[in-house]
UniProtKB/TrEMBL annotation:
InterPro entries: AGP_Transferase (IPR051678), Aminoglycoside_PTrfase (IPR002575), Kan/Strep_kinase (IPR024165), Kinase-like_dom_sf (IPR011009). This is Aminoglycoside 3'-phosphotransferase. Residues 38-218 form the Aminoglycoside phosphotransferase domain. Pfam families: APH. One of its GO terms (biological process) is response to antibiotic. Belongs to the aminoglycoside phosphotransferase family. PANTHER family: 3'-PHOSPHOTRANSFERASE, PUTATIVE-RELATED, AMINOGLYCOSIDE PHOSPHOTRANSFERASE-RELATED-RELATED. GO terms for molecular function: ATP binding; kinase activity; metal ion binding; phosphotransferase activity, alcohol group as acceptor. Transmembrane segments: none annotated. The keyword Nucleus does not apply. Keywords: Antibiotic resistance, ATP-binding, Kinase, Magnesium, Metal-binding, Nucleotide-binding, Transferase. The active site is at 178 (proton acceptor). Mg(2+) binds at residues 183, 196.
Amino acid sequence: MKIDEIVIPQKIATHIKNQNYTKDTIGRSHSSVILFDNYVLKIESLSLESKNELILMKWLKGRLPVPEIIAHCEEDGYNFLLMSRLQGDMLYEVDSSIELYVKSLKQLKEIDYRDCPVDNRLEHYLKQAQYNVDNDLVDLDNVNPDTFGPEGFKDSQDLLQWLKDNQPEEELSYSHGDLCMPNILVKNNEIIGYIDLGRGGICDRYRDIALCYRSYLYNTEITEEKLQSKLEQLLDFKLDMEKIRYYILIDELF
């Protein structure tokens, strides 16, 4: 069995042979996501992120609604992860998305992170960012147009150095790590699941707040002033906008 010229290992193929499928085109990750009626197959190059996703999916079971692992294997430099398909809408598709977004932020913060097997604090995350920069893995086609250029940073190395020099104090919690609207699934106005978990782990809760802020601006027509005010109202604390900017910028290197 082949999908996009990639041979699917028998361990995976036995679950999905002769089934119709479509390709997910919403996400911006470097993986291929294949959608079946009841399964999702994620194919990506082997990486620390792909390994962490498997670890966190196992650890999060019973702590957070995440897909079930059906089968997994590594072959020919690829990571193959077959999981259950959560039947819900992506957060940007529902009217009450801001309230549910904040609910997700609170839900993540409530997780006891002390025995989380993945440490993604800045000390470690900046090392991964350094690896991405050194190996030309930064996708400059998917960055904010203001990040680089005359009004921004000279290049990705310049941004990385700024991030190293301006590390904020961390408020630790469990973080999803890529909490954009397509990665939160809802049904009947309730959160039913989280996907794309490979960047999660122990880190500053502002990483999730920052990507919530960026994703909501991208997917709606709200102004920054109104969004800040609404989030502060629902979260019941004043946002540190410098930390939000910091974590939006560090995400440009992933």
